[in-house]
Prior knowledge:
By secondary structure, the chain is of the alpha+beta class. It has one domain (35-158): CATH 3.30.1330.40. The protein contains 4 helices and 7 strands. It has helices spanning 3-6, 10-16, 67-89, 113-128, and strands spanning 35-38, 41-47, 50-51, 54-55, 95-105, 135-141, 150-158. The strands form 2 sheets. The protein has a 5-stranded mixed sheet with strand order 1-2-7-5-6, covered by helices on one side. The chain is globular and about 50 Å long. The relative contact order is 0.22.
Amino acid sequence: MTVLESAVKATERLRALGLELPALGFGASPHFVNHRTVDSSVHISGQLPYRDGVLLGQGIVSRDVDVPTARDLARQTALNALAVAADAVGDLDRVRIVQMLVFVASTPDLGEQSRVADAASDLLVDVLGENGRHARTAIGVAGLPRNSPVEIQLVCTAVEERSAP
């Protein structure tokens, strides 16, 4: 059994992957909020591949950005979305992903948008386990904000906390 498989909590899995949730505040806008709760659903605004306030890539996938790089950017974008989700529900260990929408700025003939999105899906499952499994749509678009190659939007819910025996 690997360290990741033996980790029970999402926070432990995140650490086992050598990752930490980024600080919120990146991409703040006066025009929208990072998340909105409606009934039991939390809608996470589209996130971009920022790290420490820097957009990690720009351009169109298969023209300016290769697929492996786009996958790395999707992974970072999913990590950013997880940070917002954890803030929205109060704790990473309470996050359950319902749906993920992945936009990939790509040439019309790429056809590998789902491969790019797979990197984000893998991260969510690696960190959240079963709570990371989700419905998903991956689509190619002509362009994204700030010329980002990837944007991810999530819908999640909060898992009820279990009381100690």
